[in-house]
Each structure stands twice: as C-alpha cells, then as structure tokens.
Design a protein that fits this description.
Number of strands: 0
CATH architecture: Orthogonal Bundle
CATH class: Mainly Alpha
Number of helices: 8
Strand content: under 5%
Radius of gyration: 16 Å
CATH topology: Globin-like
Bound molecules: protoporphyrin IX containing FE
Order of helices and strands: HHHHHHHH
CATH superfamily: Globins
Largest sheet: none
Number of domains: 1
Helix content: 55-70%
Shape: globular
Length: 142
C-alpha cells in the first residue's frame, strides 16, 4: 500500500442512520403501521396485544445489528433470531411479506433522505424474513 493510501474503517450503519433515536422512530412507525393497516392484519395477529415490549426489543436488536451497543445480545446469551422465528406457529411467506412491506414503508417515511441506505437495509431484512418463512417449523440450520 502506498503512503498516499489510508486505511479507513467503513462507516457503521448505526452511525449512518444517526444512532439509536432514528432507529427507535422507525420501529415505532413500523408497529404503528402493523397496528392500524388492514394489509398487516395477519402479522399483527401473531403479536401480543401490547406492542410496547416489542418496540423496545426490536429497537435494541436493530441497534446491535447495525453495529451499535450490543445490549440485546448481552441480555440473551446464545439467542438466535433466525431459529426463534422459524419456530413461531404462524410463520409463512405471507406474513414475511407483510413484515418487509411494513418495515419498508416505516423506513422510507422516517429515514427519508438516504434511499440507498434504506434499500440496502430492507433488502437484508427481506433475506432474513424469507429464510425465516422458508424454513418455518423449527429447522435450526442457518
Ligand atoms: C418473517 C417475518 C417476521 C415475522 C412474521 C416476525 C414475527 C415476530 C413475532 C410474532 C414476534 C413475537 C412478538 C410478541 O411476542 O409479541 C417477533 C419478535 C421479534 N422479532 Fe420478528 N418477525 C419477522 C421478522 C423479523 C426480522 C427480519 C427481524 C430482525 C431484523 C425481527 C426481529 C425480532 C425481534 C428482535 C423480536 C423480539 C425477540 C426478543 O427480543 O425476544 N423479526 N417477531
């Protein structure tokens, strides 16, 4: 490597989105949409009546997933988000689609100035959701 070249660490998604606060705002919008739009009724029905614990939990998870503080993982040693979801009783491609559409809308509304970022994030979430649904029934393989 020449002296002119410098090694720069890639910017973390957590920093690019602006930290925890914008993530929490996106998650709140996601659950508000899930709670109010008929298009997401099946997805809503899978969740507990009170969505407030999920607002906290999904925010904590996404903070860690994007490279921020890892409290979600530290509080749940060995937890695997993929296998936990594959075991959900009503997991299927339709609810996976609803999850991704609700998150896409929430992200586009709450992170409006960075379409490249939201497209990449939603695309990664869509791959996870598809895998959760394709292997529904408790298969622990990744
Ligand atoms: C296939 C689409 C998905 C469906 C149908 C789905 C559904 C659910 C349901 C029903 C719960 C439990 C809710 C409750 O107890 O009230 C849950 C929890 C959770 N989901 Fe999903 N989910 C999906 C995709 C995802 C994705 C892609 C992520 C991460 C990027 C995610 C992250 C979480 C987290 C962090 C929790 C809470 C787990 C905990 O903290 O113990 N989900 N999900």
């Amino acid at each position: 490597m020449s002296e002119a070249e410098t090694i720069t660490r890639p910017r973390l998604p957590f920093d690019r989105i602006g930290g925890r606060e914008p993530i929490a705002r996106m998650v709140d919008r996601f659950y508000d949409l899930m709670d109010s739009e008929a298009d997401y009724a099946e997805l809503r029905a899978m969740h507990a009546d009170d969505l407030s614990p999920m607002r906290e939990s999904l925010t904590d998870f996404l903070v860690a997933w994007m490279g921020g503080p890892r409290d979600w993982f530290e509080k749940r040693p060995g937890a695997c988000i993929m296998s936990a979801h594959r075991k959900l009783p009503d997991m299927n491609m339709e609810v996976a689609k609803q999850w991704v559409l609700a998150m896409k809308q929430a992200a586009e509304e709450t992170v409006p100035d960075d379409r490249e970022f939201t497209d990449n994030m939603v695309s990664a979430m869509a791959s996870m959701s598809k895998s959760m649904a394709a292997n529904a029934g408790g298969d622990d393989s990744h």
